Structures
1.
Amino acid sequence: MFTPEQLQKVWMQLALQGMGANLGALQALQAANMSAGGGPTTGPPPGLFPPIPTATIPVVNPGSPTTSNLTAEQIIQTCDQLEKADDIDRLARFLYSLPPTIAQEVVSNEVVLKARALVCFHMGDFRQLYSILENHKFTQGSHQKMQYMWQEAHYREAEKQRGRPLGPVDKYRVRKKYPMPRTIWDGEQKTHCFKERTRSLLREWYLKDPYPNPSKKKELANATGLTAMQVGNWFKNRRQRDRAAAAKNK
């Protein structure tokens, strides 16, 4: 018999990796759990995909008439809108809701692949993220965001393993150990340091507000040419450095 925690992990893996294609396996797992006394399971455990009100994109179960009636173009457009809005919860639930037959029609589409990669990144499913990035060639317009997720995921894994934040030298070593695949990189060497003008602008905004809201992050991203994720990560790292310096000076 599976515990609720074990079932939750299975739900997450099947939902992300198969986009609904593993529904049969999940149903078999649920039936086995019920026969062993685990009780009925009609959907993902509470909290895995928390309810978020939406007027335009309904939250449904796999294979429901709502998503079954969507065309491939509508699925791609929805993924693109949610990815650009950085609405990870709704994006994850939308991908999960796609029935196997429809999911297969868009499984190789770049917009859908970017959406899946983004969900995997935010859920910490880095193994699946790496698989998506390594096995599908992305166009140059998608490179910056995919590169950021590739490197940031490896940084986080290294931080977890070492039990401490990474310094510049640590991050350099991680990048050398895990070079970006050519599927998200054109081979041109790039500096991993922001330009002085960009750093100055980031510092200026940080002094005004160390905790910018999503709207301010997007505004700053547009002003610097960075992504909203890069801006958010810079602010997070700066706050960590300031706290460490303050603790050291006590």
2.
Amino acid sequence: MKHSIRVALGALSLVAVCVIPTAAAAEGELIVDGTDYGGTSGCIDLGPNAPRKFKNNSDRLVTIYMNTHCVGAASGILRGRSSGTYTGSSMLRS
């Protein structure tokens, strides 16, 4: 009886691990001054405040901030499948 309970619990654990969805990765290229940030999402530190060329080849929105922690007023918002030059030190890809 104990053996069959352990087997059943083990099988349920395996099913739970296989069924739980994982967080979706950002898809598509996001190129900032020649660097591809395509596989990243969330707040991304770009370094010191400077004008940068953005090319968003994904369907996701990118918000550019003057602050390094993606807070405060946005200096630019880049829609999916668009490009532009914006000044900022961080960006949030949603």
3.
Amino acid sequence: MSGERPNLDLARAYTRAVGPTAIAVGAAIALQGLFLLPTVVAQYQPLSYGLVMMLFGTAAYARTESVMGRIAQWCVTLVFVAGGVWSLLQWVPLIWGPQHVGASGDLSLIALWLTAGPALFVPGLLAAVRPGWTPLIVVPALLSIAFAAMMGYGALYMLGLPNGAQLSSLEHAQLVGISGFSAIFLLIAVFRAVTMWRS
């Protein structure tokens, strides 16, 4: 039966290969996030980033028919739906609240939140309706999150905080670590994709 769906089987094998790497990288980043909790860098959610990496990595690796796979699937659904709800709620204060003046009627910012909401709802609903698709949904999300984190935390290290506050040596070291671990995950994911495709 599996021979009739070679591309799907290859994709599933890839998700199971990438999953443990995401879990390990997420654990390392979450540990760094714990060290950053008392600092101003905590507002950029490094701990949450690490935990999401671990959750999505578990969902990518676990078999969807197993108990762990089902738990991971519903957790992924909750994360996507919660993110979608939060994104949709952001446009209310931007249009009618005090932030409207600060945003200066920035339509691009409002459009970002309006599009981010549905964009997060779709994979969440797919994961809920089709549990078998969950690993195929979370891996692109992992790659996107890791790339954004690599660039974002790297920029924070290079450029500093927007308000001009100085970062401590510990904060600099942790930012390098988070950006570096994200880059390592991307490199491993790309390497595995290339090797599996060639084989």
